Amino acid sequence: MATTTDLNPKNIFDYPKYWAECLTPAPFLPMNRREMDELGWDSCDIILVTGDAYVDHPSFGMAIIGRLLESQGFRVGIIAQPSWQDKTPFMALGPPNLFFGITAGNMDSMINRYTAERKIRNDDAYTPGGEAGARPDRATLVYAQRVREAYKSIPIILGGIEASLRRTAHYDYWQDKVRRSFLVDSKADMLLYGNAERAIVTLAHRLARGEEISSITDLRGSVLLRDNVPEEWYQLDSTTLEPPAQAALHNQDYQPLPLNHFKSTGTAKKFVAPVEQTVIRLPSYEQVRADKNLYAHANRIIHLETNPGNARALVQKHQDRELWLNPPPLPLSTQEMDFIYDLPYQRVPHPQYGQARIPAYEMIRFSVNIMRGCFGGCTFCSITEHEGRIIQNRSEESILREIELIRDQVPGFTGVISDLGGPTANMYRLACRSKEIEAACRKPSCVFPGICSNLNTDHSSLIGLYRKARALPGIKKILIGSGVRYDLATQSPEYVKELVTHHVGGYLKIAPEHTESGPLSKMMKPEIDSYYEFKHLFDKFSAIAGKEQYLIPYFIAAHPGTTDEDMLQLALWLKQNGFRADQVQAFYPSPMATATAMYHTHKNPLRKIKTDSESVDIVKGERRRRLHKAFLRYHDPANWPLLRTTLKQMGRDDLIGPGKKQLVPKIQPADNRPYQSSRRKNSSLTHSKRPRRFQTRFNPKQ
């Protein structure tokens, strides 16, 4: 039995299979009673509810979880994008024998539905036809409530990125307030955070053996509610801004402590609570809702307890209940990753969608995910909070098999693989040089403020993979669509040469995000010098290859810690380098992210929080957010009046005029029409000799 203290758990493919293993794998996991009848099923053991269309492809979370549970011998059904006005659609497959698994889908439902300016989007990439409106706000909560209406006693398990990032009390940008954990509001039985394969397999088998959901309290990566903290646990009180109180036995302070819980400090002995039996008490929901300093403090503690090798359990009171967070899930081994990606996916949408186009599927159908996780720790990004900082890798053999499957089975394949990557393009097989150091580390990033001396930056495994992949028969080209972590790439010029020579289709997108030190330090991104170093290698190897290729830099407007002067300097940099942004992405405060805590509290959780600690400049209000986006689109006449006014207020009238070093002209066009690109609407760059126009919209894989 895997527990929160077990650092060597059973492999997910080693469990004795449930009885339905004798059945043939379903062509597609059933979505209705007719399909169940065709499979000869009288019921489902597990039913998954998702806010996405059902695409049987390993880039879609519910397909992975469904196929994995099927491989364990369970009969799994899927209810995709149900109408949520009443409980009837949630009863389409009948009651499951074990549990309902609920997710909002591959994206947070609020980010999926609203822009950074809180305006409703007019499309949804995970819906047939790209149509908006197929899922409700906070879909995880709504789906859970409808399932509970339909079936009072069947366990409900929450998962996916929406629930994962709302596992504790969290700031909600759309309501501008702190909300309770989704586990509390949904009235579900358990929440699984992060990539939950190991947890969901263990949970399914334990429930199948007859264990009650209320008794399963030791599962890594799980969140549950308790009436109180068990008496045998040591509590570390971190409910104030003062140093944490000495760990003590809950309600048993009078009992003598075991000798092995002490360590020598000179002539004295100091008590050291065992990690596996220690729980850190966070400020309560009521406290973090009322006190922004405590919110920032709690956010800092949560991020310090994300390394599976040393993380302790957390507890946060919500009224009279204890929200209990077990330590993070352990990373999957390469063998386990291969097992998951080798499952019998159809790699196409469910037939019920007919010829309807699902944009998210169109984007990834010829791409291959080679790894998970990211140790970059960018404060605005949700990847590390969800997938973790330890890279989980597939084997070369598994990746090459998938490329051959795409070549042989996926309709419309023309010989071009659109991406070999993951959260980043080039962290494949990069890790700490020492497992012991990795297990003890609490740094939020391996590459900020500089690359850690303990990090192995050898890209040779990735270079070898690229070479073997493009040598496969029938493969004409392999492009790299995932974002390249360019500060890492410069540590391996041979990798940059390989990338530039064989895997760039004219333009390569990278994300410096800003040029100025202030905002970059709040983002935990490298200084702009790293961009110049990478650009030098990129240009050098492009010239050697005889190719005309360009870098497309992405930037974020209005990030916490960004001043008006910072945006002015970025605008001048863009003009000096001849760049014109077609689209601009303003900072989007997603739940749990460190930058979101900065946005809400004006404090910097990257440092210890005190009442008088550093105040972070936050870009709030429509006018100032519009101004920061206007600096990125300095070339648009519609922005010139605002920029002129601001430049005068900043004492920079010298930047108003027709000169090459001036930002905006003095004279406004008579028609005042905004800048319009002459290219196709969705194109991101002109085809001129210099890359003058580009998009800066940041779209992290989730």
How many beta-strand runs? 26
- The structural domain count equals 4
Largest sheet: 11 strands, mixed
Which CATH architecture of the largest domain would you pick? 3-Layer(aba) Sandwich
CATH class membership of the largest domain = Alpha Beta
Strand content range: 5-15%
Structural class: alpha/beta
| Low-confidence residue ranges | 250-265, 675-702
Helix content: 25-40%
The value of Rg in angstroms is 26 Å
CATH homologous superfamily of the largest domain, by name? Response regulator
Short note summarizing the structure:
With 702 residues, the chain is α/β, with parallel strands linked by helices.
Plain-language structure description:
It is a single chain. This protein has 702 residues and is an alpha/beta fold. It folds into four domains: 203 residues, 3-Layer(aba) Sandwich (Rossmann fold); 97 residues, no CATH class; 133 residues, 2-Layer Sandwich (Transcription Regulator spoIIAA); 199 residues, Transcription Regulator spoIIAA. Helices cover 29% and strands 14% of the residues. The protein has 23 helices and 26 strands. The strands form eight sheets. An eleven-stranded mixed beta sheet has the order 2-1-3-4-7-8-15-14-13-9-10, sandwiched between helices. The protein has a three-stranded parallel beta sheet with strand order 22-23-25. A hairpin with a 2-residue loop joins strand 11 and strand 12. 48% of the residues are buried. The C terminus is likely disordered.
